[in-house]
């Protein structure tokens, strides 16, 4: 391990089940269902299936997004933005772990940039990350057409090894010659980033991640509301 005092420090956080209780993508679909913005129960069922595949480590993210993003077909991004503001206020804010807030505040007090990297679509991640005061947000970018979101992914999805690729891509465009990375996550899908980071911290880890944490001696935390 290199000496962090000679490097640019970055504090990186996964979002779902790390900073907040629950998965923001699933909660978003449920919000749209509760508001009767979507009325086809297949979308809610697809999210449940997605979570099972995600937890098992075999989710085809692009295929899932092609289906789930149909919920916003033909809806202007400005309208989606209004719904997102209400969604974050009413659903997400109450789910933010107090320990997450204090941990983020601790890094900020040291002048360390806060980066949220999530395998959720960027338009959701950014809304939440902004409320947490993150300096940088990375999610799965979605192409737009005629003022609406499409079902097509733009660029590298921030999923599994894609998180490392997107982070290194971002670092390469910054005045950073050597980064020292702190990383927080709950999911074994983030193992590529766990091994890439200089220090990894496990928050409410899933069984596969806890096994890896024990093998690699990563600190483990249980955060709750």
- Are there runs of 5+ residues with pLDDT below 50, and where? none
Number of helices: 9
Structural class: alpha/beta
Name the shape in a single word: globular
Strand count: 8
- Report the sheet with the most strands, covering strand number, pairing sense and barrel closure: 6 strands, parallel
Query: Strand fraction band?
Result: 15-25%
Query: Which percent range fits the helix content?
Result: 40-55%
Spatial ordering of strands, largest sheet: 3-2-1-6-7-8
What separation lies between the terminal Cα atoms?
A: 34 Å
Radius of gyration: 17 Å
Mean of the pLDDT scores?
Answer: 94
What pattern of helices and strands is seen along the backbone?
Answer: EHHHHHEHEEEHEHEHE
